[in-house]
Amino acid sequence: MSYPFDIREYRPGDEPGILTSFNRVFREVCGEGYVDRQPGFWDWEFAQNPAGHRIVVAVGEDGTIAAQYAGCPQRFHSSYGEVTFVHIVDSFVVPEARQGLKRPGLFVTTAYPWFELCDRMGDAVLWGFPVKTAERIGQRYLEYKPLRSIDYLCRGVGAGALEGPADVQVEAVAEIPAEADALFERVAAEKTCLLRRDRAYLDWRYRRIPGGGKDYTVLAARRGGELVGLAVLRVQHELVPEACTFADWVVPGCDGEVVDGLLAAASRIAQGAGRKTLMAVLPPWSPEAAALTARGFEAVSSAIYMERKLTHRIYHAAMTTEWLAENWWYTVGDTDLV
Q1: In whole angstroms, how far apart are CA 16 and each of 11, 22, 37, 45?
Q2: Nearest Cα residue to 206 out of 240, 180, 169
Q3: What is the pLDDT of residues 259-301, one digit of tens each?
Q4: Distance (Å, rounded) from C-alpha 93 to C-alpha 97?
Q5: DSSP string, 288-333
Q6: CB 266 within 8 A of CB 277
Q7: Sheet holding 216-223, edge to edge
Q8: Which residues of 37-63 are buried (b: 16+ CB within 10 A; e: fewer)?
Q9: How does 146-161 read in b/e, with b if 16+ C-beta sit within 10 Å?
Q10: Which three-class secondary structure string do you get for 195-260?
Q11: If you average pLDDT over every residue of the chain, what do you get?
Q12: What is the pairing mode between strands 83-93 and 125-128?
């Protein structure tokens, strides 16, 4: 590895070098069973993202991508207007560039211009789930602040029957329904801070993702022909062992009949796939979390498996950590964890 590094924003053509180094690093971290990240996934995650991308790389004199700090912008509805949050993903430093460098090190020196880029772009909140080492470095050098440690809402698939009402019909659909935009607007009218789950976003996130047709099941709930709810399942998923995970949830008014219909359909799918647990991630203060708790879901700390600590940095002039803690509505599908 040659020194010094050219730390700069991503340029078209960097992708092969990024993927080569990314796969080296994560092969080491994840061990046996790791499947190399492919160009198609990179293209989907960044080039096709409807909200764009934020990427800074450190390039050695030999052309090696030695480090990356990256994020996926997300369009948010909020009581402060339409804003952009950026989910920090896929950041790394190759092993040989971690050695012999004075603190703060290449991870931080690559991150500094990335945060400056986000500031110039007018992004409101930068966030992610850093591993413990990155969290410590981020708190010391990058103004990371914790919001909360995430709980998983879990219910055993066999823990009593879940019955759907007769007047709500739920079916798995191949495409995001055309009425999804109007459905989201009804949800947005009730909330003060959440990712815009419109049709374009849902299609990109769950249908255009490589493998999305087999990895995600979109459930559409209708009453009298009207779309009244959407949920997205990741049937085979291991954040919680042997879980069937609700990746997304769009139900205006937390309509109890729609909740029952979606849960009953998800339970049947989970049973058919041999899964033992239904799992969701929702803010602990939310009516949706209360609705699931009333139906037998229990909060399980992510620390039992691997703690997921939601960490953030705010650029928006009016938002505060306390405001986010009380108003930011999310699901696990907002992240790269599912």
Answers
A1: 11, 10, 11, 15
A2: 180
A3: 999 999 999 999 999 999 999 999 999 999 999 999 999 999 9
A4: 7
A5: HHHHHHHTT-EEEEGGGTS--EEEEEE-SSS--HHHHHHH-B--GG
A6: no
A7: 169-173, 216-223, 226-237, 243-250, 277-280, 151-156, 298-301
A8: beeeebebbbeebebebbbbbbbbeee
A9: ebeebbbbbbebebee
A10: ECCCHHHHHHHHHCCCCHHHHEEEEEEEECCEEEEEEEEEEEECCCCCEEEEEEEECHHHCHHHHH
A11: 94
A12: parallel
Beta strands 216-223 and 83-93, pairing class: unpaired
Residues in the chain: 338
**DSSP E strand boundaries for 79-141:** 83-93, 125-128
User: How would residue 245 be classed by pLDDT, with cut points 50, 70 and 90?
Assistant: very high
The closest of 329, 251, 332, 252 to 284, measured between CA atoms, is 329
81: region left, alpha or beta (phi > 0 left; psi from -120 to 50 alpha): left
Domain with CATH 3.40.630.30 in the chain: 6-143, 151-304
Q: Which helix (H) or strand (E) holds 148?
A: strand 145-149
Name the DSSP letter for residue 129. Answer: -
The rounded radius of gyration (Å) of the Cα atoms in the chain is 21
Using CA atoms, how far residue 106 sits from 110, 136, 269, 296, in Å, is: 6, 15, 46, 47
**pLDDT tens digit string along 49-102?**
999 999 999 999 999 999 999 999 999 999 999 999 999 999 999 998 886 445
Helices (H) and strands (E) in the chain, counts: 10, 15
Residue 101, pLDDT score: 45
Q: What are phi and psi of 293, to 5 degrees?
A: -60, -40
CATH topology of domain 151-304: Aminopeptidase (3.40.630)
Contact 176, 203 (CB under 8 A): yes
User: Domain 6-143, what fold?
Assistant: Aminopeptidase (3.40.630)
CB 224 within 8 Å of CB 311: no
Which residues are registered as beta bridge partners of 125? Answer: 85, 314
